[in-house]
């Protein structure tokens, strides 16, 4: 079996971490039990480009139990847990190509190692696997049955491809499932981002000014949790509807150009590039802390920051100190990459349980329906979304009401009024 991980001797530690995560992933565990009996993925090759974490390990285990051959590479150079990668190879016979801190060339060689296996289904987080396949192996892309995409950034890229008529196979946008973005993006990102910031800095949030750049679901979760820690939260936005919502939620809303002068912490969660730029760095207070929790490391313009700096040094693990020409110091966390995964452990397993349950069930859906699907981006089927929610509630021991026949009739008729 081909693989490329840092050190197989880390496998025992990784196995324990995988087991720990599994204890809080009851929905995925139920799906794995179903897959083990029914083998709905028998004979299928799956190429996955995901954060190599304990939660991901339980997803790929589930897919393998369903009968699939799974090949895994990292979707971010700083999110890999080397112990988990080793455990997947040693104890589950899953080929993994991922090493924490790998350079760009190694990163793409790992993607190509997965694509060399000729997968019929792809699972992506950020769309690097899909874009590489389309750019470098267009003939191979034509033969892929379908794929899934985990995150907002990837869905944006894939919808752009579909709009231009370039997408060569159907993709299900798992990110757009209600049981994904309402929970994973909001509660997962909110908690794990603060976890990463605190692990990296050990700074007090209470009383600070915390600037959240972007008020999508990730931004909403981050703002909510930062406020809960006692920070005074400022939101910056380009969308008037989201900005208005932030105002109604009680946050200060202003342009980043103004927020730059008062912020102690800055975190980007936009999915766009060059959000924090040269003009903002020059206005920041001495000691400002800057980080990113959007998928790619393009949200903070580090190139311009280096150009206006006289010195860069690592002052603490995951913290780089930039001394500006004006004498001020700016601190960047985790090289501008996902701070929640680079400086912490990513989303808690309890919320990834729903996201990865969607992934597993959508892969099963593609296997059953790929012959009728078009080359476009699909939403997660409603029945899958609701099934995940029901399984999660049941696992939590929570029961809910059901509509009476009279209520069902009322909701589907028009005759009855005041």
From TrEMBL:
Primary localisation category: cytoplasm
Q: Give me the comment on cofactor binding.
A: Binds 1 NAD(+) per subunit.
The cross-references to InterPro entries, in alphabetical order and at most eight, read: Adenosylhomocyst_ase-like_sf (IPR042172), Adenosylhomocysteinase-like (IPR000043), Ado_hCys_hydrolase_NAD-bd (IPR015878), NAD(P)-bd_dom_sf (IPR036291), S-Ado-L-homoCys_hydrolase_CS (IPR020082)
Which keywords accompany this UniProt record? Cytoplasm, Hydrolase, NAD, One-carbon metabolism
List the cofactors: NAD(+)
GO molecular function terms attached to this record: adenosylhomocysteinase activity
Catalysed reaction, written as an equation: S-adenosyl-L-homocysteine + H2O = L-homocysteine + adenosine
**Keyword Glycoprotein, does the record have it?**
no
Q: Which GO terms describe its cellular component?
A: cytosol
Q: In which pathway does it act?
A: Amino-acid biosynthesis; L-homocysteine biosynthesis; L-homocysteine from S-adenosyl-L-homocysteine: step 1/1
Top EC class for this record: hydrolase
- Per UniProt, where does NAD(+) bind? 151-153, 185, 214-221, 237, 272, 293-295, 340, 347
The compartments listed are: Cytoplasm
Sorted alphabetically, the Gene Ontology BP terms of this entry are: L-homocysteine biosynthetic process; one-carbon metabolic process; S-adenosylmethionine cycle
EC number(s) reported in the record: 3.13.2.1
Q: Which Pfam families match?
A: AdoHcyase, AdoHcyase_NAD
Q: Output the superkingdom of the source species.
A: Bacteria
Q: Residues that bind substrate, according to the entry?
A: 53, 125, 150, 180, 184
By sequence similarity, the record places it as follows:
Belongs to the adenosylhomocysteinase family.
Q: Which HAMAP family match?
A: AdoHcyase
- Per its record, how is this protein called by name? Adenosylhomocysteinase
Origin species, per record, is Thermodesulfobacterium commune
Its gene is ahcY
